[in-house]
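Sat 14:20. Reprocessing the chain from the morning session after the first attempt stalled halfway. Input below, unchanged.
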Amino acid sequence: MAVAALLRGAAAGRRSPAWRWRPSGFPRRCVARGSGLLGGNPADGGAWTCFRLDERALVRVRGPDASPFLLGLLTNELPLSGPSTGAAQPSARAAYAHFLNVQGRTLYDVILYGLPQCTEEAPGFLLECDSSVLGALQKHLTVYKIRRKVTVEPHPELRVWAVLPSDPQTPEAAPLEERAEATTILTRDPRTMRMGWRLLTQDDDGPALVPRGQLGDLQDYHMHRYQQGIPEGVCDLPPGMALPLESNLVFMNGVSFTKGCYIGQELTARTHHTGVIRKRLFPVRLEGSLPASGISPGTLVVVTATGQAAGKFRAGQGHMGLALLRSETIKGPLHIKTSESQQVAVTALVPDWWPTAAK
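Finished this time. Tokens:
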């Protein structure tokens, strides 16, 4: 109960202290596949490591009714669309949100980007989603479009890149500035500072657009993401199964409790206001010999001392992953029994960027 209380009522993650990631807390084998910590060696002069995310795709939604249309479907407010206003505190160019079904379960996780070339009268947005559900997301949007003046279409012209500091200890070695142009958008990842920046561009050479940028190994990006407890895509958030608050949507700045109604809002709002979230998606470290095929999604995680079920493994890569666990069980020794009847020790981690009552 103490752990559950500690993790309730969190403030937005982007207000948490900047980059305090200590890679020494993880075994070296977890990040051993790249030439450096995030796929690059800071000694080679690279300040930023760029990862091309081919498994992410973009849908463009634009038209006079684009804003109210999306607000009725998404858990969060919309980012700035159109040219910058020049305000002292400009609106964010990106936002994180989920589409929910009527039962309040996650269908698709998206990062939204406001299109700079659109106007306030006819706003436009790009929705970054898992490429495997691109068609399903378009169909979902079309179902609710009805007579609204909105155009929904894929936008393959732009590619999605993640941009992370090559050395997390000096994230501002080559400071970045937000860009919002017709062919290039560079903005901070709205989920947490630990996920760096997002880059959308027509250019195949993303690192060329970033000061002292270098190409990174995609496996290192996913390893970093799992270490930070960030779910992304349908493997981590199975459509129609994952609950948004158990998936730490509040921590990742992905929900507004003051915006208007949206599909699936009732269960989400009720759970938030009761203040009781008994299970969460935790990053986990696996120790032991793993099957060649890895740990299967849905594999039971067990409390070693009692044999009691603690939760289920969700997804992962190598010795890092995510598991949906009951909060009161995460301190005790846990394990997974593999398909080969071998026992793999599981250590649940609490990322230090997660907001808590103690911070």
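The helical segments are 2-6, 66-71, 134-145, 218-227, 265-274.
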